[in-house]
Amino acid sequence: MPQLAYVNGRILPLADASLHIEDRGTQFADAVYEVCAVMNGQILDWQPHLLRLRRNLAELGINWTMADGPFTLQARRLISRNGQRDCIIYIQISRGTARRDHAFPGDAPANLVMTVRRFDFAQRVKQLATGIKVIIQSDTRWGRVDIKTTGLLGNVLAKQAAREAGAFEAWLLSGETVREGSSTNAWIVKDGRIITHPTGTSILPGIARDSLIRLATAAQMIVEERPFTLAEALGADEAFLTSTTAPILPVVAIDGQAVADGRPGPVTRRLGELVWNEVARQTGWRA
Ligand code: PMP
């Protein structure tokens, strides 16, 4: 079956799907996006993703009139037409197509595109046993990274540096503070306390982050939302990261230095159980 994409109400083969070259997403990164996990044909955490998307559209004043009901139906229709049970859906809404001018166009309707790609979530469960490595990069991004825009060049360059260093992720440093990863949220564990940077304008409020805080709190674990330094991370008992495509992965090395004994720790393992049980509860998916 050819891979299908969605463009402004039409579903068509990915190879034929396109936007006008004066789409403002291309010229100004004047666009927001979401990536959702689809497991067993069910979208994980759909309501929180929808809420974040709406908030981002409102922050940028992008006029998006489709109601949640029809929008959800369009997303589900693309997923089922693609026929993938385990995949990620990418959703992008730009301010529209208009003659290039920085100021907002008066009457251009927003452009909605969606793509679906197969994803191997079982690989993420296997990685719980081994963990991954991160490197440190300085955070060169703009001042409103809480808005999930397609302006990701700082993230792209940091991720590429990680790839070239043989690491899974780059953690972004501002002064002494570790903010988050290039496409994941960053966590450490010290003396049983689970620590992650607070929301605000300097991190992306991850859906997986939010979900983990809820699950950990319900399990009587202690979560501290506060900035932590690189020195704290290097001296942590455990470290891990979260995102939609990596719901939880242990971090076993930071910039070439082992975290504790260099193996995934018990708190992260326990959180892994909670996270994947929640996935199973919502979607019926099991590794
Ligand atoms: N931080 C950044 C910079 C990201 O790009 C992402 C992925 N969207 C995340 C954190 C994790 O967010 P989520 O849990 O919603 O995937």
Task: Give an overview in words.
Strands 7, 8, 9, 10, 11, 12, 13, 14, 15 and 16 form a 10-stranded mixed β-sheet that branches. The chain has a 6-stranded antiparallel β-sheet with strand order 2-1-6-5-3-4. It contains 8 helices and 16 strands. Helix 6 packs across helix 8. The protein is an alpha+beta fold and 287 residues long. The protein has helices spanning 24-28, 46-60, 68-82, 121-130, 153-164, 207-218, 230-234, 266-283, and strands at 4-7, 10-13, 31-39, 42-43, 87-94, 111-118, 132-138, 169-174, 177-181, 185-190, 193-196, 222-225, 228-229, 238-242, 249-254, 257-258. The chain is globular and about 55 Å long. The mean pLDDT is 98. Strand 1 (4-7) and strand 2 (10-13) form a beta hairpin. The structure holds 4'-deoxy-4'-aminopyridoxal-5'-phosphate (PMP). 4'-deoxy-4'-aminopyridoxal-5'-phosphate binds at residues 35, 155, 180, 183-185, 204, 206-209, 242-244.
Brief overview, please?
This protein is of the alpha+beta class. It is built from 8 helices and 16 strands.
Blueprint (SSEs and pairs):
Blueprint: E1 4-7, E2 10-13, H1 24-28, E3 31-39, E4 42-43, H2 46-60, H3 68-82, E5 87-94, E6 111-118, H4 121-130, E7 132-138, H5 153-164, E8 169-174, E9 177-181, E10 185-190, E11 193-196, H6 207-218, E12 222-225, E13 228-229, H7 230-234, E14 238-242, E15 249-254, E16 257-258, H8 266-283
Parallel strand pairs: 7-8, 7-15, 11-12
Antiparallel strand pairs: 1-2, 1-6, 3-4, 3-5, 5-6, 8-9, 9-13, 10-11, 10-14, 14-15, 15-16
The structure holds 4'-deoxy-4'-aminopyridoxal-5'-phosphate.
